[in-house]
Write a structure and sequence with these properties.
two-stranded antiparallel sheet, three-stranded antiparallel sheet, alpha+beta, rod-shaped, 4 helices, 179 residues
Length: 179
């Protein structure tokens, strides 16, 4: 304690007594002492960042489509092709029911025609015509099912949804268009 000023002695007294090197070593911070000089302070910062241009997409809804379910909203992060919302179309629902009934009816007629053809009660041409009608009805049904599958709004690319005003039950002309 010889040679210490009164301030140093007070600071030493205020410090809790510890085992030499225990807590002090844990809190040690490296310090570099330099000469004091009048000059400009310079520092630099180096970083790497990935920048991507902003991409906006407005996805149109067709007339008569209603929002059935919204799964993602503004601020949500989405992966490419992730489902954002499901839509319903009353018109497509009716077309689907009509097409399913037509296919079912033509398939029943085709089976009956096949049995009648075996016993030669129906000409081959009539049976072939029914087969063609049945095939056409199945193709029409597949087209409607494809349209129904397109009643899903999916993310065209990965990113963050900036704006989404789709609400369940809403009937909209366009999707994503800002007011």
């Amino acid at each position: 304690n010889k040679g210490k000023t009164a301030e140093h002695k007070e600071a030493d007294a205020a410090q809790p007594q510890q085992q030499p090197g225990a807590q002090i070593e844990k809190n040690r911070v490296p310090v570099r002492v330099g000469k004091v000089a009048r000059r400009a302070i310079r520092s630099s910062y180096r970083s790497t960042v990935l920048l991507e241009p902003s991409r906006d997409v407005v996805l149109p809804l067709n007339a008569g489509e209603v929002v059935a379910e919204t799964l993602k909203g503004a601020g949500d992060i989405v992966k490419e092709n992730e489902l954002i919302a499901r839509l319903v179309s009353a018109e497509l629902q009716l077309q689907l029911q009509e097409a399913e009934l037509a296919v079912h009816d033509l398939n029943r007629q085709f089976k009956t025609s096949a049995e009648l053809l075996k016993n030669r009660h129906v000409p081959q041409e009539s049976h072939d015509e029914l087969a063609n009608k049945s095939q056409s009805a199945r193709i029409a049904l597949d087209k409607i099912r494809l349209k129904m599958s397109q009643l899903q709004i999916r993310a065209p690319f990965a990113g963050v949804i900036a704006y989404n005003d789709l609400k369940k039950g809403a009937l909209r002309a366009t999707y994503g268009e800002r007011p």
